[in-house]
Design the sequence.
């Protein structure tokens, strides 16, 4: 008698890997589950946990490649000569049902784990999308700040250029004013020299004039002194003549009898 497990184990019960489950296209709403009494009641259906709607803030859409084919959840059932249910002992049927229930519970746990993992991946993707949106907003804000900084820099450059041009004009005006002042100073110095020369000439002329005037005054004084001496001499002569006449007159009067 064969072992009961040979009637319970299908050819492939391995679940697809995490990567292959993420790349699987959409499954049909129901999947066939074989139970111990499937020969009597036929295949039963159960809802796929992966197809249920998970309430999230934002559910991203996964683009599945068209060329990829989903791995089969179940391999082909082996060709086994299974006895009819009415021919199987009751203990064997109970054992088979218990094994199938354990396998179904394990599969449900795997489906729940996969569902939880998918939910976490969707949450991570939503978080990454939100982070990307924040980063994009920060990048836009940084671009605006850069544009504002560039505009301020251009305005500062323009203001600096205007200030430099104004300083250059002021410097040119100052240089021109200095040159004009130097020319005026040189002209004034020339005029001062001319005035000094004229002053020296005037002083020389004045000295000569004073010398000539002094010489003329001296000549006049000498002439006046000569005239005065001549007049004094004439006066003296007249006085002497008068005295002589008086003496003669007195002598004559004294010699004549009364």
Sequence:
């Amino acid at each position: 008698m064969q072992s009961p497990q040979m009637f319970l184990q299908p050819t492939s019960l391995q679940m697809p890997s995490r990567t292959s489950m993420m790349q699987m296209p959409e499954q049909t709403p129901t999947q066939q589950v074989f139970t111990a009494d499937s020969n009597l009641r036929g295949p039963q259906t159960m809802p796929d946990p992966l197809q249920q709607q998970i309430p999230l803030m934002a559910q991203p859409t996964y683009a599945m490649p068209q060329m990829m084919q989903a791995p089969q959840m179940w391999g082909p059932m082996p060709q086994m000569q299974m006895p009819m249910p009415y021919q199987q002992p009751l203990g064997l049927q109970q054992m088979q049902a218990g094994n199938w229930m354990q396998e179904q519970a394990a599969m449900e746990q795997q489906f729940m784990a996969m569902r939880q993992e998918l939910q976490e991946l969707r949450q991570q993707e939503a978080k990454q999308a939100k982070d990307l949106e924040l980063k994009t907003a920060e990048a836009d804000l940084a671009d605006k700040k850069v544009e504002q900084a560039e505009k301020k820099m251009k305005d500062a450059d323009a203001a600096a250029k205007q200030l430099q041009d104004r300083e250059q004009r002021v410097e040119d005006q100052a240089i021109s004013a200095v040159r004009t002042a130097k020319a005026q100073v040189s002209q004034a110095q020339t005029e001062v020299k001319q005035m000094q020369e004229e002053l020296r000439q005037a002083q020389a002329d004045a000295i000569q004039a004073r010398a000539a005037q002094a010489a003329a005054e001296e000549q006049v004084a000498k002439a006046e002194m000569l005239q005065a001496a001549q007049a004094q001499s004439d006066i003296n002569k007249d006085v002497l003549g008068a005295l002589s006449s008086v003496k003669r007159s007195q002598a004559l009067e004294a010699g004549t009898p009364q």
Observations:
- Helices lie at 18-22, 38-41, 90-255.
- The CA atoms of residues 145 and 227 lie 118 Å apart.
- The two ends are 242 Å apart (CA to CA).
- The longest strand covers residues 30-33.
